[in-house]
Description:
Two copies of one chain form a homodimer.
Chain A: E1 11-20, E2 40-48, E3 53-60, H1 65-73, H2 76-79, H3 87-95, H4 108-129, H5 133-138, H6 142-147, H7 160-169, H8 174-184, E4 186-194, H9 200-212, E5 218-221, H10 226-240, E6 246-249, H11 256-264, E7 271-275, H12 283-292, E8 298-300, H13 307-315, E9 321-322, H14 331-345, H15 358-373, E10 382-384, E11 398-399, E12 402-403, H16 417-423, H17 429-432
Parallel strand pairs in A: 4-5, 4-10, 5-6, 6-7, 7-8, 8-9
Antiparallel strand pairs in A: 1-2, 2-3, 4-12, 11-12
Helix pairs in contact in A: 1-4, 3-4, 7-14, 8-15, 9-10, 11-12, 13-14
Amino acid sequence: xxxxxxxxxxxVGMETHDVRFPTSRQLxxxxxxxxxxxxxxxxxxxxxxxxxxxxGFAFTIGRGNDVxxxxxxxxxxxxxxxxxxxxxxxxxxxxxxxxLRWLGPEKGxxxxxxxxxxxxxxxxxxxxxxxxxWRLLSELSPEQIVDLIDFRYLSDALTRDEALQILKNAExxxxxRIARLIEVGYPAYTTSPGWLGYDDEKxxxxxxxxxxxxFGQIKLKVGADLEDDRRRFRVAxxxxxxxxxxxxxANQRWDVGSGIEWINxxxxxxxxxVEEPTSPDDVLGHAAIARGIxxxxxxxxxxxxxxIIFKQxxxxxxxxxxxxxSARVGGVNENLAILLLAxxxxxxxxxxxxxxxxxxxxxxxxxxxxxxxxxxxxxxxxEYVDHLHEHFVDPVVIRNGRYVAPSAPGFSGELHAAxxxxxxxxxxxxxxxx
Amino acid sequence: xxxxxxxxxxxVGMETHDVRFPTSRQLxxxxxxxxxxxxxxxxxxxxxxxxxxxxGFAFTIGRGNDVxxxxxxxxxxxxxxxxxxxxxxxxxxxxxxxxLRWLGPEKGxxxxxxxxxxxxxxxxxxxxxxxxxWRLLSELSPEQIVDLIDFRYLSDALTRDEALQILKNAExxxxxRIARLIEVGYPAYTTSPGWLGYDDEKxxxxxxxxxxxxFGQIKLKVGADLEDDRRRFRVAxxxxxxxxxxxxxANQRWDVGSGIEWINxxxxxxxxxVEEPTSPDDVLGHAAIARGIxxxxxxxxxxxxxxIIFKQxxxxxxxxxxxxxSARVGGVNENLAILLLAxxxxxxxxxxxxxxxxxxxxxxxxxxxxxxxxxxxxxxxxEYVDHLHEHFVDPVVIRNGRYVAPSAPGFSGELHAAxxxxxxxxxxxxxxxx
Lengths: 434, 434
């Protein structure tokens, strides 16, 4: 593949792959709602007439990954033969297609398909530019950034002019922040100790490892059994000490009333935040929970379907931390809108990651946020889970509990060809033998 | 096919069909967001070992109907070989499948697929019972009804006990209401005059026809051009008179601020309600619009993804009319929850219909609401659009502007086999010739 290229190019091919990792065999990733996930990627490769490839995917947890892959294939007519220099226009064309829109609008399978394709287009663009995506985005002008965003349904909370002003205010000091980011990386926290399927001994060992590795925060899954949660939280506090940030994550397990009760029963352990206490659709429910557990902060976002729900979570003072996901909303473009919304409301963005390649992707967005939007890494952390990175061509690097800024061109979401082949469902060797 | 049957049975087969009607050729169904829909059904047939069939579908408007059909096929393992007597348990199994849930949860393509299957199961159940669905549901006990509902995420607005009480309060007088319903039918309104693609002459003619046919309300599509809307509203008022209920429908065209401005510019024409002023996800936006246009009522629902968004619309006093759709949320079961939520909050349900077979299905739900939930038809109307009914085995019957209560066993959503064959995409004769 050539390294960096300028000028016009066209997409001439799209491949999709149903890739699944049998993670349920080890209970990795087990939580109160997802007891046995098989981390999967509905994977797409775009090919250009000048020899580049863009890779992207929607993340799922097993069954239904075939449906998700079919939805990505349905977008082929929107990219094949297209000159894809203007990713603002192409994104808006896909999201606002009047017929496809009926399948959402802007939510669920069809929206995640758009996300996969949009992210693959950005991977392509960054590879052709010879830059990691965070840097490519950071070097765009404020006007170029806002042109990438669909402000429809946002104007009561964030106008184009307000977004432009936020970006202009961050112009100064960009070069220094890029240098600093390259030097020190971006803070991470780890969920690896906290899966529900692990016993106390494993929890204890993984907490110690997290501290030894320099992570500044950990997270525990909760919500299946209260006494179990109290015991595990106590174990984690013993290892980590009384003031170390320990977040908890209920993965949507509760209703409003039961959530408030349960969280208050964990209050003595000082949760750094409580994540996904209830349905990701329930803006008013999150707001009621936030009031019922003050001052414990509420966080959510990994299942939030689009910028319109995020807008309302911010308007309702329902969340204190906003957790973007790189592959659920409409890809890079919609996440730019969400970063700007969060900046407008002064709420720190602490991304969801893990799964298949979500760490690889989302680090670029947080780094862009630091360099070109908020100018700070204070009170911000990117989730880190140590699963499946070995399958990626440009895997994340964690050093002293921080993400090292990627330097390879692209969006870092490319799987090794051999990993795709082995894990293709149902005919790859991993599944054929099962 | 046998007429009525008791005892255990199992599903032994599932067929799916990608059925599309080329409605865009006539601009039927054109509105401000959907200029050229091809009304489509991702269609499913379930077959039992005792010779019955259950028919259901998800409604789409063209592109993506293949994705929707694939999603329905993915549910085959949940029904094949199953004893499907307990439709509460089966519904909850599908909705709460931990892996499939990741594709929503409870929204978009995967949720609409569940809707299609759930509705097909109810069609089957009603056919085997030898009753129209509205009657089958009306004759269930309050306990049987609440067992069909997933109360997760509802308890801050509606508990199981409250739902039970609403149903128990409606027990008295059921028999009289069934008799009355059969005698007079259920009030309808018509959208047929109001499509944006029609010229003033056609609008005038269709308004007159609506009055002649005895409809008590009409609806106009708005939101593409304000001067055009004012002219068309004036034409409709000339024909219908100053006090006749004329609703308007923007199909999500506006942001909060632009919606308030636009609606207030139509205030002099006294809209009976304004429908879908903005994104169906924007609960707080609907609430802000409702306050900004008082006392003009706000209505929404056809694109509302699930009971959780409806719950919030009610909690936030954002809507004065709630518009259920028979085939977007999780089928009959979730619509039962939504009818009960609306009853709790005292908001009339005026269903969305039209498309392919949505009139056929949703009439059953409103009739159940009258007989067994609210006990009233006051201030309630079911949408009626005179498209595509000829393709159904048991099409709706409108008499004096009212839906006649169906008497044939089932859920009325069965297409003629010949219609399926001719309209199958892309190989049916209708498409092959195009």
